Amino acid sequence: MKINRIYAVYWSATGNTRKIVERISDKLATLTDLPIETIDFTLPPKREQKYEFSEGDLVIVGTPTYAGKTPNKILPFLKSGLIGGGAAAIAVVTFGNRSFDNSLAELCDVLESNSFHTIAGGAFACRHAFTDKMADGRPDTGDLLDCDLFSEKILAKIQNMDTFPEPVKVDGDASAPYYVPKGTDGQPAKFLKAVVQTDKEICVECGTCIELCPMGSINPLDVSKNIGPCIKCHACVRGCPTGAKYFSDPAFLSHVAMLEMNFTSRKENKLFY
Ligand SMILES: Cc1cc2nc3c(=O)[nH]c(=O)nc-3n(C[C@H](O)[C@H](O)[C@H](O)COP(=O)(O)O)c2cc1C
Fold first, then answer.
1. Is the preceding peptide bond at 35 cis, omega within 30 degrees of 0?
2. C-beta 92 within 6 A of ligand 1
C-alpha cells in the first residue's frame, strides 16, 4: 500500500506524548523519505477546527492515559475533530507507570468510528505527570528505540498490505468505566474538584501558565484564579519557571502517595500490530 503523507497528531500537556509521537513519525518519515505535518491540539484554539485526512495518509495519533482512558475533556474533540476519510492510523497512548488500562482500546475505537483504519497501536510508559517517583526520565533511550522498532514494523506491515486488514487488536475494553483513584487508605480518593494552587510569594506573574493551560482556564488578570476547569494535567506545575504552581488537596495528595507506594517498578511498553 502506498503512503503519501505522514501526520503527527497529539494532545500532550507535559510533553511525553509529544516526544513519543514525534519519535515514531520522525522514524517513519526517514524510512519513507516523506515529510511530516504536525497537528498539536493541546491548546484550545487548535481544537476549534476540524482536521480531515484521506486515503494515502498515515496518521499517528497520541494522547496520554487519564484514569485509565483518554482524557475525558479531550474525548469530544477526538470524536468530532479528527476525520479519517479512509486514512491509516497508528494509535499511541502514554501512561505514568500504573497502567494504560483501556485508553488505547478507547482511542482505537474512536479512530475506527471516525473512518480511520487502525493498523497498529502502542502504549508507552512515561514519567507520571503527578510525580517524579514514577517512571522518572522516561521516555528514555530504550523507549525511543522501542519507538523506532515500532515504526519499522508498521512500515513492513504497510508494505505488505494490498487492502486494509481488520482493525488492530489491542489490550483493554473501549467501553470500560474510568479507573477510580484510591488513597493510601485504599478508599476512593475524591479530588475531582481539586484546583491548582499558586504560591504568591514565588509567582512572578510571567503568564507562562496562562499560555500552557490546555483548558484555557487560568485567569489572565489574576493567575492565581481559575476561570475554567482544572483537569490536573500538571502543564502549569511542570512548566512554571519559578515552581509556583502546586496541588494541596488532601485527597489528591493521598492518591499520589498511594501511586508512589505501589507503582514504581518499571513497566514495559506494549506494541500491537
Ligand atoms: C489527570 C491524570 C490522570 C492520569 N491517570 C493515569 C492512569 O490512569 N494510569 C497511568 O499509568 N498514568 C496516568 N497518568 C499519567 C499520564 O498518563 C502520563 O504522565 C502521561 O505520559 C502524560 O502525558 P503528557 O506528558 O503527554 O501530558 C495520569 C495523569 C494525569 C495528569
1. no
2. no
Establish whether residue 53 lines the binding site of ligand 1, counting it when its CB lies within 6 angstroms of any ligand atom.
no
Tell me which residue range forms the domain holding 165: 5-178+267-272
CATH number, domain containing residue 115: 3.40.50.360
Please state the atom number of ligand 1 nearest to the C-alpha of residue 68: 8
| DSSP letters spanning 188-244 | B---TT---EE-TTT-----HHHHH-TT--B-TT-TTSBSS------HHHHH-TT--
In the prediction, which pLDDT does 124 show? 98
Q: Which of 127, 128, 212, 217 to mutate to test the pocket of ligand 1 (most atoms within 8 A of CB)?
A: 128
Cell of 146: 522501542
Which tens digits make up the pLDDT trace of 93-146?
999 999 999 999 999 999 999 999 999 999 999 999 999 999 999 999 999 999
* Residue 256 belongs to some domain of the structure: no
Residues 174, 202 within the same domain: no
Task: Pick from 21, 66, 233 the residue to mutate for probing ligand 1's pocket: most ligand atoms within 8 Å of its CB.
Answer: 66
